[in-house]
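ARCHIVE CARD
CATEGORY: sequence design from structure
SOURCE FIELD: tokenized fold
FIELD CONTENT:
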């Protein structure tokens, strides 16, 4: 073999070894982390150039080094070639040896170095080794091809024209952008509105500490929370790993129309903004007597990072009307992600309000008995004095009105009972 043919063969072998030692491990890592390109807003041409650089620039550098040293003689060039081959071969075998348990790192490095030396001597002295590397030469196009066409990165490289929004569609200043997600419902694809919450479209704020909450839209408009201005129910919340599915319905009862938006806040931060209509609710339409309200249902699945396994998490769901008011939905029994008092309880700090907010009825009976109330410390003093006076006079005993009810009884007669009541988690 002439010196020229030998140099070309050695150059091809360097490209093959770089493909195994550098390109393939990097492509494997990036194919499992497509967000690397998404976070950097990489264009398809950027990704293709990146692949070409990774695959072919390092071997070109090595080939240039060998070409320069060739002027010093064939022996010098072959020595440099053997050194480069040994380094690349060691880089290829080291990740394969690393999973071996109980072997010190120094031993693994020594084993990889020994493998590199053997490979380098084989390429310099034995034709079968050089032939083997030549047979592997197709990987120099297979590895980048698999990465660009068959890995998850392909979705970022080959964007369907329908998914691209022309620049002319945007106007100067703020633009309202809506996103849609194609999800599978069984074997049937479904288009679901999924407005990005990351842009801060809505913000939940409190004007006076714990009271007078309101929602602020992206344009600065303040949305008042008006209890029962909209009616809705969160049927279920299902957590699976780092994803949450919320199902329910909501209606603007004043105007008998669908809400403008459904908002999901986690610990006060907007995590999702969407529309109703993803789930048909014919029973809602029948109840309100309006066919359009059949689209009042919603079912959203969205990522949600749960802190401390969800123990310190508070998830609140609101419906916003087209008229600029909002209301918090009613949560199901046992809902464990609502820790703060609800609007009715904030308006009047009575525990009964918490029951009413969740749709739990409290039986009430009218009575002509004199009322004894204690709302302040002065009232308490008067009540104690009146009760003592009645006791001394042995007047008619104070009667407590009782009403028969079919509601489930929640009693707490002992500390154990109290624990069971708290465990019920009705709010």
């Amino acid at each position: 073999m002439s010196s020229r043919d030998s140099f070309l063969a050695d150059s091809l072998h360097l490209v093959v070894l770089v493909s195994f030692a550098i390109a393939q491990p990097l492509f494997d890592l990036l194919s499992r982390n497509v967000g690397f390109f998404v976070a950097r807003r990489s264009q398809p041409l950027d990704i293709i150039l990146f692949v070409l650089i990774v695959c072919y620039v390092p071997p070109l550098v090595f080939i240039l080094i060998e070409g320069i040293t060739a002027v010093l003689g064939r022996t010098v060039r072959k020595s440099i070639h053997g050194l480069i081959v040994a380094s690349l071969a060691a880089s290829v075998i080291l990740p394969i040896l690393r999973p071996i348990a109980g072997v010190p790192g120094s031993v693994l490095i020594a084993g990889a170095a020994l493998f590199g030396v053997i490979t380098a001597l084989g390429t310099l002295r034995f034709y079968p080794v050089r032939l083997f590397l030549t047979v592997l030469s197709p990987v120099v196009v297979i590895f980048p091809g698999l990465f660009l066409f068959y890995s998850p990165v392909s979705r970022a490289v080959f964007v369907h024209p329908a998914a691209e929004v022309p620049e002319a569609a945007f106007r100067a200043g703020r633009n309202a952008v809506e996103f849609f997600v194609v999800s599978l419902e069984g074997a049937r694809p479904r288009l679901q509105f999924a407005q990005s919450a990351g842009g801060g479209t809505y913000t939940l704020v409190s004007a006076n500490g714990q009271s007078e909450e309101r929602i602020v839209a992206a344009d600065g408009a303040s949305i008042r929370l008006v209890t029962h201005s909209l009616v809705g129910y969160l049927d279920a919340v299902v957590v699976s790993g780092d994803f949450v599915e919320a199902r329910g319905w909501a209606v603007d009862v004043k105007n008998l129309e669908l809400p403008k938006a459904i908002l999901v806040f986690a610990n006060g931060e907007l995590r999702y903004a969407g529309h109703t209509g993803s789930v048909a609710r014919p029973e809602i339409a029948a109840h309100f007597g309006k066919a359009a309200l059949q689209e009042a249902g919603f079912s959203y699945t969205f990522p949600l990072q749960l802190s401390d396994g969800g123990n310190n998490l508070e998830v609140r769901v609101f419906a916003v009307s087209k008229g600029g008011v909002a209301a918090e939905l009613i949560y199901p029994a046992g809902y464990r992600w609502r820790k703060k008092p609800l609007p009715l309880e904030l308006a009047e700090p009575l525990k009964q309000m918490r029951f009413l907010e969740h749709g739990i009825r409290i039986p009430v009976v009218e009575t002509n008995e004199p009322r004894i109330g204690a709302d302040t410390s002065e009232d308490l003093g008067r009540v104690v004095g009146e009760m003592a006076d009645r006791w001394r006079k042995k007047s008619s005993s104070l009667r407590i009105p009782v009403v028969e009810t079919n509601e489930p009884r929640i009693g707490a007669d002992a500390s154990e009972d109290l624990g069971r009541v708290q465990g019920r988690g009705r709010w």
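CARD ANNOTATION: Residues 195-200, 421-427 have pLDDT under 50 and may be disordered. The longest strand covers residues 231-240.
SHELF: design records, drawer C
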